[in-house]
Structures
1.
Amino acid sequence: MRERKIQGQAPPASQPSASSPLIAPAADETVNDSLRPTRLMDMIGQRAVADRLRVALEACRIRGEPLPHILFDGPPGLGKTTFATVLHHELGVELAMTSGPALDKKGDVMPFLTNAIEGSILFIDEIHRLPKSVEEFIYPVMEDFRVDVVLGEGISARTLNLPLKKFTIIGATTRSGMLSSPLRDRFHMHEHLEFYDIADLARIVTINAAKLKTTITQEAALELAHRSRGTPRLANARLRWVRDFATARYDGVVTVEIAREALEMQEIDREALDKQDRRYLEGLIQVFHGGPAGVEALAATLAISVDTLADEVEPFLLRSQFIIRTPRGRCATPKAYEHLGIRLPKKRPASDGQDNLFGHF
Ligand code: ADP
C-alpha cells in the first residue's frame, strides 16, 4: 500500500513527472498529521456518512471491485481528506493526491490516470477549481475507465482510445454549488460533512491529547470543543496551542483555567469567534448598517478574499446565527449586535428603500 503525497520532490519514474503538479492538499498536515485517524472505526462523529461508507467498503470487498467515485463536500477542516485516507487504509490500496488548481491542463492529469492501478484511489481536493477542459477530459474516465488522446495535429490527427485500470476518484470541495452538474452526477456517492457537535469535538480533543502525551481535564476538553467552531482541524490546532501554553507557563497539565487563558491570548472568544470573524461582523454592522450586503462588497471593505469569506468565515457565522443569508445579501442578526456589545438600532436604515429584515428593532 502506497500513499503518494509528493510536494517539491521528484517522483519515481513510474509516477507523474517532476513537472506535473502532484501536490498534497494541506500538504504539511497531510504528511505529518499524527492526529489523523486511519481507520473508519476511529472517525469521531459524522455517523451517517461513516455508516454509508462502511456499506460501500463491504460491498466492494465482497464483489472485488473498486469503490464507487465519491464526492465529499463541506467547510474546510471537517474531515474530507481524512475520510479519503481512511478509505485507502481500510482497503489497503494505493492513494494519489492532487488538487483542482494543480491540474491546469489535460497533460497534468494524464500521469495520474495512466499510473492508477486496479482499485487505487485518486483524491482530488478543491475539485470545483478544476478547469473546464480537464473536467470534460475526465468524464469518460469516470464513466468507462477510458481516455481519449489526440495524436498529431491537423488532418493527420487521430484519436486514440486508451483503456485505463478501474480505479476510484474521490473529490473534495468546499463549494459543491460551484460544481457543474455533469461532474457532480458522475460521482456515485455524495457525502456532505456537517459541523461537529461539542461532545464529538471534546472526544477528539481528549483522544488527541493522549496521542500528544498531554494531560487535559474533561472540563478543559469541553472548553476547547466549545471554542473550535465545530471543526476538528481547529480543535487540534487549539489543543496544540493550549498544550504549548501549559508547558511554557505552567506544569504542562491543561486545566480549564489554563485553556481559557491560552485561548484568550489567541483572541478566541467564548463563542469561538476569532479576530477575523469579529472584523467581519463589525464591518457588516458599522459599514453596511447590519446589511443586506453582498459578499464581494464585504470582501473589498475588509480586504479579505471572497473565497476566504465564503469558505472559512461565513459557514460558521451562518450556522451559529450571527448572520443570515438573504437574496439581497448578508444581514447581521440581533445575536451579532449583542455579542459585539453594539446597541441595536431602533429601525435600521434600509439602503434600497425597502424595510430590512430586522426592521422591528
Ligand atoms: P478537510 O479535508 O475537510 O479540510 P481534514 O480531513 O484535513 O479536513 O481534517 C483536518 C483534521 O481534523 C485531520 O487532520 C484530523 O486530525 C481531524 N479530523 C477530521 N475529521 C475527523 C474525525 N471524524 N474524527 C477525528 N478527527 C478528525
2.
Amino acid sequence: MQQQLTDIRERMIVALDFSTLDEVKKCIEPLQGHIRYVKVGMELAYAEGPAIVSFLKEKGLNVFLDLKVHDIPNTAKGAMRSLARLGADMVNVHAAGGVAMMAAAREGLEQGTAAGAARPLLIGVTMLTSTGLQTMNQELAIPGAVEDVVVHYARMTKQAGLDGVVASPLEVPMIKKAAGDAFVTVTPGIRPLGADQGDQTRITTPEQAFRLGSDYLVIGRAITGAKDPVGVWQSIVAAVEKDRS
Ligand code: C5P
C-alpha cells in the first residue's frame, strides 16, 4: 500500500506558475515532505534563471522544466545540450517542430547529460489544450479533428525517439493505443471535484486521469491557489488511493 502511495505522489507534478523565488518559497514551504515533483514553466525560468532548478533539486524535488523548445534542429539540439546540464528530470519540445527537430533534441540531451547520470525524460507537446478546432483548422491551416492530430503527433514523437507526450487526459487512451503503454503521457487540465475550472476546458479529476492511463498529472492552481494547499494535496492522494484500491 505504501509503495502504491509513494508511486502516486511521484506521478503528480505541481505547476509552480510564479515569477519570483519568494513566491515559490512561500508555496513549497508547507508542501515540503508531501510533494515530490514540480514543474517550472517559462514565467519562472525566465525570471529566476537556471538557479531555480538547482534550488528545487536541493529541496529534494524532481523538476519538469517546461520550456517547450521549438526551433531548427541544430538550435533545438544545442538548447537541449544546455538544458541537460541544469539537472532537470523532464524537459520538452513542441512536436510541431517535426521528427528531425525532435530527434536532434534527443541527441543534444544525450550529449549534455553527464556520464553516469540519468538522461532527463524528453516529452513532446502535442496540440496545446488551448488550441480549439477552429483555431487549428483555420489559423494553423491543419485540417481534421484535434484528436487525430494529437495521435499523429504522438506517433511522430515516438518515431523521433522521445519518451512521451503532453496531452489532455481524455486523449490518453488513444495515444496509448497508437504508441504503446510504455509511451509516457503527461497530462494537465486536472481539477479535483468541486475545484474552480479556471481557463481549462477539457478537464478530468485526478482519479479519472489515472484511470484513463495518465502516467504524470500536472496540477497547478487547484493546489497552489488553495487556502489549504496541504489539505487539497492530501485529499487528492486519498481520493486516488481509494479509487485504485
Ligand atoms: O493551474 P492549472 O492546473 O490549470 O495548470 C496547468 C499547468 O499545465 C500550467 O502550468 C499550464 O501552462 C500547463 N499546461 C496546460 N496545457 C497544456 C500544456 C501545459 O495547462 N497543453
3.
Amino acid sequence: MLMKIIDILNQNQKGVAFEFFPPKTESGRRSLAATADALKDFKPLYASMTYGAGGATQEKTKQAVHMLTKHKDLVVMPHMTCVGADSKSVISLLDSYRQEGIDNIMALRGDVPELVEDFDFSKQEFCFALDLVKFLKNYGHFCIGVAVYPEGHIETPCLDTGLEYAKRKIDSGADFAVTQMFFDNKYYYDFLQRAKNKGINIPILPGILPLTNLDKVKQFASICKTTIPKKVRDRMEKFEANSSDMQKAGIELTIEQCQDLIKNGVKKLHFFTLNKPEIMKEILGALDL
Ligand code: FAD
C-alpha cells in the first residue's frame, strides 16, 4: 500500500480525500469513528485531521490521528500549525507521528492566537508555514502538504504577492497543496492558471466545504475571504425558515460545484467533511468519482 500522499495522487486519476476535525467529547469520538467507517467505502485517497492553532488541540489531534490509523486501509495526514511552536516541540510531535507510522504532514502556520494581544509573528521561531516546510524537509521522512488561497489570504490582499509567498513555501519542499474553500470555481481555475504561469507544478487539490447552513457559511467565508456567489445566496436564502430544506439546497449546490470541477478535468477533491457522514454520502453518491 502506498503511504505517501504524493505517490497516491500521482498514481490515481481520481478520488476523494476527507478532512476531519478532532472531537472534544466521548460522543464526538464515537461519531468520528462512525464517520470514518461510513466513508471508507469511498476508498479515500487520504484522510486528514485538523490541528488547533497554538497547539490548543494538539493532544486531541494526536488521539484522533491515532484512532484513524487503526483503519489499516486509511492513509492519515495530521495537520500541524507552527505558530507559537519551537523546534523542540515540533521534533517531539514529528517523532511521535513517525513512530506511529504516519508519513504525511499538512504544514501550516495557523492563525493569530485569539487571546493574545499584539501577537508578533516576527518574534516567533516559526514565522510562516514556509519555516515549518523547511524544518520538515530537513527532518526528512514526511510528504508535505500546504494550504493555498485562490481568493487570497486575509493578511495578504494582493493576489500576486500571496502567490509569490505560496511559491516560496512550495519551492522549499511542499509536495502538494490544498486550497481554502471557494464556492465559485472560477477562482480555482484562475488560481491554477496563475500558479502554472509562475512555474508551480505540484498537485493543487480543491478544498470543498459542503454547503449546509447559510449563516455558518457566511461566518466562515468572512473569516476566510471566500466569496459567496449570488446563486448560492439566492438558492439558500429561500429556505431560511426551514433548515432541512436549506441543507438540501446546499447539498445540491455542492454537487453542482463538484460536477463542474469534474467536467473541467479536476477529479481529485479534498472535502472538509465537518465529521458529517450522511452529507458526504449524499454528495459522493451523486458524483462519478
Ligand atoms: P502561510 O503560508 O505562512 O501564510 C500566512 C500569511 O503570511 C499569508 O497571508 C501569506 O501570504 C503571508 N506570508 C507568507 N510568507 C510571507 C513573507 N515572507 N512575508 C510576509 N508575509 C508572508 N488552521 C489551523 O489552525 N489548523 C488546521 O488544521 C488548519 N487546516 C487548514 C487546512 C487548509 C486546507 C487551509 C486552506 C487552511 C487551514 N488552516 C488551519 C488555516 C490556516 O492556518 C490559516 O489560513 C493561517 O492564517 C495561514 O496558514 P498558512 O499555513 O497558509 O500560512
4.
Amino acid sequence: MHIIRRAALAAAAALIGAAAPSHAGPAYITVGEAAHALLAEVAPQAREHSGADVPVMLPAARGSRALAAGRERVRVVEIDEARLPALSQAVHERLHRCGGFVHHDSLAEALATLHRLQQPAAAAATPSYAIDDSSTVTPLLAQMQDSQILATIERLSQFQNRYYTSSHGQAASDWLASTWRSLAGGRTDVQVTQVQHRGWPQKSVSLLIRGSVKPQERIVLGGHLDSIASPAGNEVRAPGADDDASGVATLTEVIRVLMAANFRPTRSVEFIAYAAEEVGLRGSAQIAARYARQKQAVLGVLQLDMTAYQGDATDLWIFTDYTHAAQNQFVADLAAQYLPELTVGFDRCGYACSDHASWTQRGFAASFPFEASDAHYNKAIHTAADTTATFGNHARHALKFGKLALSYAVELGSD
Ligand code: BES
Ligand code: ZN
C-alpha cells in the first residue's frame, strides 16, 4: 500500500515535472494592472505585499505623439512560482494584453524595484540626439536584406523551443553565439560572449564592438532569445518565430551589415540576445542590475521584441510607458530621416511587457519600437502557431526595424 502510494506519487510528480516549468515555491513579482486584474482568479493564494502609483507617459490619444502624464498601479506580490505561466497565458488569452510582470530574487528586491519606479527618472547623462551620420548610415541601409532576416528566423524557429530551462533553449544560445562569432570574423575589437545567469541554464548572448574613442560609453541593442508556450516544459513546441526570433534575427542582420562594412563606432555598441524574458524579464534584469552596480555608462538602449508581423497600416509603433521620452523622440526622428516612407504611431504596452523595462527600472534610457499597436499584436505568440506563416513567410516588416536599429547604432554609437 505504502509502496503503491509512493509509486503513484512519483508518477504524478513526473507528470507535473513535465508540464511545470520550474520548481514550485514562493516567487516575488512586481505586476502591473493587466496581470493584477486576473490575479485573484488565476492565483487566489497570491498575497499582495505593497503597491504604488507609478508615473508613466501615455499618448494623449491613441497613436498620437503628444504625451500626457498618467499613472499605473504596480504591486509587489508573493505567488507560487508554478502559477506564473498560467498568469501570463490568461492575460494574453482573455485580455489580449501583455501580462507583464518582473520576477525578483527576494521580497526586498521586489520592494526596492517598486521604490525605484516611483522616483522621477534620474537625470542621467543623455547623449546628443543630433542626426548627423547620414553619409555612413545611408549606404549601409542599402545593404540590409529581408531574406537574411527570414533565414535567421527560420533557423531559430527550428529549435523545438527556446525555453529558458530546456536543453533546446541552451542549444539555441550556443548556435547564436557561434553565428555572431563568425560574423565578427576574428576582429580583435569585437567580443562575443555567452553570459551565464544565476538560477537557470540558458545563457544570454552578447556581441560587443569596443568603441574606438570612448569605449567606456556604451549603446545596447537587444531582443530576447527565449520562447514559451504552455504547458511549458522541455519538449513543448514553441517556435517563437515572431516572439522573438524576429527581434534577434533583425539584430543579427544589423550585425552582419556593420561587420561587412568594417564599421568602427567611437562609443562601444553591444548587441544582446537575452535569456529568460518570458518568465519575468529575468535575463535582462540581471544584466541591467550588473551594469548599474558597475556604474557602466549605458547611454541608450533599444529593444526589438516582435518585428515581423504587421498588425496595422501604421508601420512602427513606439511605446511611451516605461521608456525614455527624449530617446523615443530621437527614434521617431531617425525614422523620419532614414525611413520617410514609413508611418509612426505611439502606444502603451503596460508594465514590464519586455526587456526595456529592466533597463528603465535601473535608470537607463530605453526605447521599444514595436510591430503593431498594442491591440493588434500577433495573437499567435506563446503557441505552437507562432511560425513564419503568420507573417506571410517574409521579413519585409522586420527589415524596417533592422534599418531603424542600424541607424540608431550608428548615430548613437558615434559621438
Ligand atoms: N513579446 C512579448 C511582449 C508583447 C506582447 C508586447 C504583445 C506587446 C504586445 C513578450 O515576450 C511577452 O510575452 N512578455 C510577457 C511579459 C513577461 C514579463 C512575462 C507577457 O506579455 O506576458
Ligand atoms: Zn517577446
